[in-house]
């Protein structure tokens, strides 16, 4: 418990890089993801194992206790080893609970079950909704998150897709025609663009 408490103090780095003065913590992100997943589960007609959903949502960032939060722009550099490192950290952090939690996190990453798709849709919805809230509050430069909204995949969770449409519209209203300035995000050795 004491180690997991660190997630309440660990800021989400993407928001820090966007210039948000007092960004949400990793713990805030997990809590809101769980709330959104619960609400979405109530809006679909298929039976959902809420215990699985809430466990996945609450523990999906547990490895960040030791690895910290990495922004999405770090993905090209760390993708290959990040999941393995997070899993190994989770084993050490969770101890006796790892046998119960880690299979659910593996299920989440595979996205083959309704519960996993629901949590993944909720997590990404939480991120774009947070962008909308920060844009409304005029905190930082959130224009980069238009891309996340445009790429949002509800994974077949219809209520999530409907909420994402509202988020996209509101984010557009809050940002207006403010362009995204990509200064400093050049990458060498990028793979060729897919046509």
Automatic annotation (TrEMBL):
GO terms for molecular function: hydrolase activity. Gene3D superfamilies: Hypothetical protein af1432 (1.10.3210.10). Keywords: Coiled coil, Hydrolase, Metal-binding. Its EC number is 3.1.3.89. It catalyses: a 2'-deoxyribonucleoside 5'-phosphate + H2O = a 2'-deoxyribonucleoside + phosphate. The keyword Nucleotide-binding does not apply. Pfam families: HD_3. Its cofactor is Co(2+); Mn(2+). Residues 104-131 form a coiled coil. It comes from the Bacteria. Residues 22-137 form the HD/PDEase domain. Homodimer. This is 5'-deoxynucleotidase.
């Amino acid at each position: 418990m004491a180690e997991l408490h660190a997630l309440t103090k660990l800021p989400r780095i993407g928001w820090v890089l966007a210039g948000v003065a007092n960004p949400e913590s990793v713990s805030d992100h997990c809590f809101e993801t769980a709330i959104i997943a619960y609400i979405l589960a109530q809006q679909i007609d298929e039976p959902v194992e809420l215990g699985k959903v809430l466990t996945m949502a609450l523990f999906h960032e547990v490895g960040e206790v030791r690895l910290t939060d990495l922004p999405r722009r770090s993905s090209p550099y760390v993708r290959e080893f990040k999941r393995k490192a997070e899993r190994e950290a989770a084993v050490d952090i969770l101890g006796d609970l790892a046998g119960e939690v880690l299979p659910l996190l593996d299920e989440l990453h595979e996205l083959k079950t309704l519960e996993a798709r629901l949590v993944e849709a909720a997590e990404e919805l939480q991120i774009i909704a947070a962008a909308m809230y920060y844009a409304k509050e005029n905190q930082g430069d959130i224009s980069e998150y238009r891309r996340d909204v445009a790429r949002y995949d509800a994974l077949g969770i219809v209520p999530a897709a409907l909420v994402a449409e509202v988020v996209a519209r509101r984010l557009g209203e809050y940002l207006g025609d403010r362009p995204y300035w990509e200064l400093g995000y050049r990458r060498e050795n990028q793979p060729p663009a897919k046509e």
